[in-house]
Design goal:
seven-stranded mixed β-sheet; about 290 residues; about 15% strand; alpha/beta
């Protein structure tokens, strides 16, 4: 029972979280959908290729809205687009409307350019419908943008034609030099290949030499270790022998010193022994008759 109660609580919590998430998304969508905007109808003469629903609407370069609808008109040469802009956008009856393209990408936007502040606001037509503005004819056409871009490119080429001419000449000279020295270049490439091959072989030889040196070094180290052990052992034996000999010599010296000391003592007690000789120091010489 306790496990079932836990699972039920977890399921209720999960359901509440999912419901709250859907509610937030719905509120966000509703809030963005109820944002106050003013719609306008823009009539274009000719093609509006590149303009799509959702495309930006710019007023003096600042985004103020977007394209919400595109439709055809009764006139086959015209196209209409519905835009929604913020209420604070100062659109007047003489506001200039064009299409602007982002270079050669083909992405178009509706461009509104401000006019005199004293101009009246755009009023909806008497027959009903949305306030209407007419775009300048052929202004903002894709072909115009292409021509303007090409004109700028042509101007750049004209300004730098001398540099371009020199660059082309240098390329021609370089190409001719390569053609004249084709055999030398081939030989140079062959020499470089041989040099690389020789370098590879040399590196291999160096590697072998390093391995050999390593082996010799190891052998020398082992030999030195053995010789060091032998020398150490010999020094140890020599030290032991010398110590024994020093001990014997020291004992002999001690005995000799003892004998000398005894002799000196006896001589001091009986100095006549030097002249008359004799054994004991207590014996007196016989008088002459």
């Amino acid at each position: 029972m306790e496990d079932r109660a836990k699972f039920a609580l977890i399921g209720l919590f999960t359901f509440a979280v999912i419901t709250a998430a859907f509610g937030f998304v719905y509120w966000l969508h509703s809030a963005s959908g109820t944002k106050e905007t003013n719609p306008y109808l823009i009539v274009f003469e000719g093609s509006v290729s590149g303009l799509r629903v959702g495309g930006p609407v710019l007023f003096n370069g600042i985004r103020v809205g977007e394209v919400t609808e595109m439709r055809l008109t009764e006139n086959p040469s015209e196209v209409a687009a519905v835009i929604s802009v913020t209420p604070s956008t100062p659109i007047r009856s003489d506001t200039n409307v064009t299409l602007e393209y982002a270079g050669l990408t083909g992405i178009a936007s509706v461009s509104l350019k401000g006019a005199a502040a004293s101009s009246p606001a755009v009023a909806p037509p008497k027959s009903g419908g949305l306030p209407t503005l007419r775009a300048a004819s052929t202004a903002g056409d894709m072909g115009t943008a292409v021509r303007e871009t090409l004109a700028k490119a042509d101007a750049i080429i004209v300004e730098n034609q001398e540099s371009l001419r020199n660059t082309i000449k240098n390329l021609e000279t370089f190409t001719a030099a390569l053609a004249r020295n084709g055999d030398k270049i081939d030989k140079l490439v062959d020499s470089s290949s041989k040099l690389i091959e020789t370098g590879t072989q040399t590196m291999g030889s160096f590697t072998e030499l390093a391995v050999s040196l390593k082996k010799d070094t190891n052998q020398l180290a082992e030999s030195l270790d053995k010789r060091t052990a032998e020398i150490t052992e010999g020094i140890t034996k020599l030290t032991e022998t010398t110590s024994k000999q020093v001990t014997v010599v020291s004992a002999n010296l001690n005995r000799a010193i003892t004998n000398i000391d005894k002799s000196v003592t006896d001589l001091a007690k009986n100095p006549q022994r030097i002249i008359f000789g004799g054994g004991s120091s207590n014996t007196s010489p016989e008088p002459r008759r």
